[in-house]
Amino acid sequence: MPDLHDTQPSRSYHYPPRDTGPPAPPKFLFWGVIFIFILVVAGIAGVVIGFREVLQPAQQQRIIDQLPFMSALRRPTPAGGVFPTLAVVADDNSALALLDMPLDIAAPAATEPAAAITPTSPQPTLAPPTETPRPAVLDEPPPTAASEQTTETIAEPGASAATRIAAAAPANALPSAARISGVRHQQQTWNNCGPATITMALSYYGWQQDQAYAGSRLKPNREDKNVSPHELAAFVAEETFVKAIVRMGGTFELLKRLVNEGFPVIIETGAMFEAYDWIGHYRVLIAYDDSLELFYFFDSFLGVGAGAQGVAISYAQVDSGWQAFNRTFIVVYEPQREDLLRALLDAHWDERDAAQFAFDAAQEEARRQPQNAFAWLNMGTSLVALDRHDEAAVAFDQANRTGKLPWRIFWYQFGIFEAYFAVGRYDDVLSLARINQNNSSELEETYYWQGRVREAQGNRQGAESLYRRALAYNPNYADARAALENLN
Asked: Are strands 177-179 and 329-333 parallel, antiparallel or unpaired?
């Protein structure tokens, strides 16, 4: 029988190919995408690091002015925007004792001039314009006639100095509004508030230089974060034929008297401008108006205000910002008007008396508001001016313990360094310096105080290096230069 299997024709089956999807991309394309992604991430990281670590703040600001979103790349400020609390031993009893200290504290003779301070009455307001500028020049001492001319005066313009002093004495003699004219506004360049503001005050007397000239002498390093009130006063003495004095503990009554008698006044204040953290700032006071409860300022940052009549700021707001600097003020004046100024300042003419007034005001504020960091800070600053370093250190401790001091505060105020150093708290001085330097390296004062500590510890080489570093930032820093010369 035939084999049927052998006789069947052979069959082949063809199955359709499986659907495997699109072909895999070439490997070089895959790794190319990965490489580009890594480059982009690295580029972004490089931009952030370069922006934060390589560019100076002024360069950062120029970029932010053109590309506002870049402000997000700035180095974060300390947590909560406050100065870190130092690990000091709490001593509530000592702090409470400061609140009970007699107001007429007896202090040893001061070794260094200190600024004066006294309470102010917080109220809100600014002032309108009224007068013509008072002519004067700085290249030679101005004539007496010019020096006795003011804007809205209490006595007749031609009255003698003695008559004007007598007329200025009664508190009720002040007009409800007054203004000085003839101040020329300067819009500050980067980080140049101090030089711009002192230039504005000097323009009242005919000063023709600009803020760049003042800046080149006051802060050779344009990133220097602080020009102190005493540095501004020294600049006036060295560069002009007018004079300037610095005092703490100013009052609204005193500010109004000075404006009424034609004295340009600079106040040092804390400010928070839009999109900025708390910062120290100078302003030139040009007017006041009691009916509106406003002061008017030429402000190097905010400008000249509506109608160029000055930036109007309420009495309450002025006092709040002014308190942060122990109500420090600078008066620029002609030498031949010194007797009048002395009479107007009264007890504030003497720096130690002014410091006593400042302490009294701060003590009263601390009693009313025990968590007011600036009240305790001002007590400490005033006590340093009175050479009461032990009590000053306690006040500074209490200010720090509130946890409410702005993180930039010790860019501008160095009484805490002096107090801690004087009582031998060297580690705390070094901690303060390190915190400052972490936030900004352009603070010659912190290197100076580090040098003082190293010198006290017997490390002469370390001290010399730090003094030289302070002078590298500011060759005009007299304290560091004196310390270096003394060391050698």
From this structure: unpaired
Question: What is the maximum span of the chain, computed from C-alpha positions, in angstroms?
Answer: 156
Three-state SS at 290: coil
> Which positions ≥6 away from 345 have C-beta within 8 Å?
247, 254, 331
Bridge partners for 147 per DSSP? none
297 Cβ neighbours under 8 A, 6+ residues apart: 283, 284, 285, 286, 305, 310, 311, 313
Q: Tell me, rounded to whole angstroms, the distance of Cα 263 from its chain centroid.
A: 23
> In this structure, are residues 453 and 485 in contact, taking their beta carbons and an 8 Å threshold?
no
- Structure-token pair, residue 391: 């009590």
- Per the DSSP assignment, residues forming a β-bridge with 311 are 297
* Type of residue numbered 391: E
Do 471 and 477 form a contact (C-beta atoms < 8 A)?
yes
Residue with tokens 């009479």: 343
The amino acid occupying position 387 is D
Task: State the Cα–Cα distance between residues 484 and 488, nearest whole angstrom.
Answer: 6
d(CA 283, CA 359): 24
- Write the DSSP symbol of residue 3: -
Residues of the chain with pLDDT under 70: 1-25, 28, 49-62, 64-66, 68-80, 87-92, 103-172, 274-275, 441
Rg, the chain, Cα only: 32
What's the sign of the alpha-carbon dihedral 181, 217, 416, 346?
Answer: negative
CATH class of 92-112+370-487: mainly alpha
Neighbours of 293 (CB within 10 A): 17
Amino acid at 207: W
Question: Three-state SS for 349?
Answer: helix
Burial class (CB in 10 A: 0-12, 13-18, 19+), 108: exposed
Sign, CA dihedral 363-368-370-371, equals negative
* Residues 226/409, Cβ–Cβ less than 8 Å: no
pLDDT digits (tens, 9 = 90+) for 256-299: 999 999 999 999 999 988 657 889 999 999 999 999 999 999 99
The domain made up of 144-349 is a member of CATH 3.90.70.10: yes
- Please measure the distance between the N-terminal and C-terminal CA atoms of the chain and give it in whole angstroms: 129
CA–CA separation, 287 and 344 (whole Å): 17
